[in-house]
Amino acid sequence: MFIALLTFYFLFFALIGDYVIFLPKFFSNYFTPAQIGIIFAMMPIARFLTPFIFLKKPLTKRDYILSIFIAFLSSFLILTKNFYLILIAFFLIGASFAVLFPYIEAIAIERLKTKYGKARVMGSIGFMLYGILFSYIKINHLISFIVLMSLTALSAFYFKEDKTIKKSSSAKINFLKDYKFWLGLILLQISFGGFYNFFTIYLINHGVDKKYIGWLWGIGVIAEIIIFLIGHKFLHKLPPIKWIKISIFLTSIRWAMLYLFANSIFLIALSQLIHAFSFAIFHTSALLYISKKYENKTLAQQFYAGIGYGLAAFLGSIISGFLYGNKLFLYESLIAFIGFLVML
Fold it and tell me: What pTM value is reported for the model?
């Protein structure tokens, strides 16, 4: 099981690396910036909408297998380079991932508990290695996407018979009962919009040399890798909800540092180390919290991914565009801090 999880995470996030790092540039040869924005909005929207299908029905083995085939077959549509077919492809892939990934995440957190990070770290490694390697080696990223999708789908088949979470597959999700967690999640992820969309541009505009920017991004990834490797040694010492609160508060500090010290490479690098909390500790703690709080672990994971990394990511992207300027990260800091206050 552990090796299967390592394999899936490595392949899945290498695939995401191709999708995030290289496909936007590839599509810029064929589509306008506005069209590219619409294309890359399809997955988050699909990830948000899909879990609502399972509010009335439990996730079945048939649903899981069907999602694998839909993701695999849809990936071939991108070869057409047709705008509308690519929209359909990414929407269907996003919908499929909204089933597959939370299902496997639920299995991983249920089986591994606080040692979840030791498996999840392979995702960070896969993403980073793919990005670095193919920055130097030229390949056809459409073909690479299809190959990685095929391998990811194949690795996902291993989990189709898993019984770990079947016992709770029909329980309902009550969002109002735990609204503070869900609202805190939304506000935290909205605050990331400025970072994902404008971090590089923001630094360049404040005089940071381009040769340092890649390393500054890398510091954040390295910080999350370290936490995924050693987090099991200390995460159990506090309840997950306390780690969540600490992570949101420190994320607010992180964005404030970017606002106050935008000209200091050292302090920017220091702020990037907080990514260990902003993502790795928050994500692991949120999964542990959900696993304990909700009977229907798979559906809870689906909504966690759909709301946090679907709806909130979509809103964060749009909001950051309106807020962009010298005070962008001051606003992002305030948004995260409001999330912290909500959690209190």
Answer: 0.83
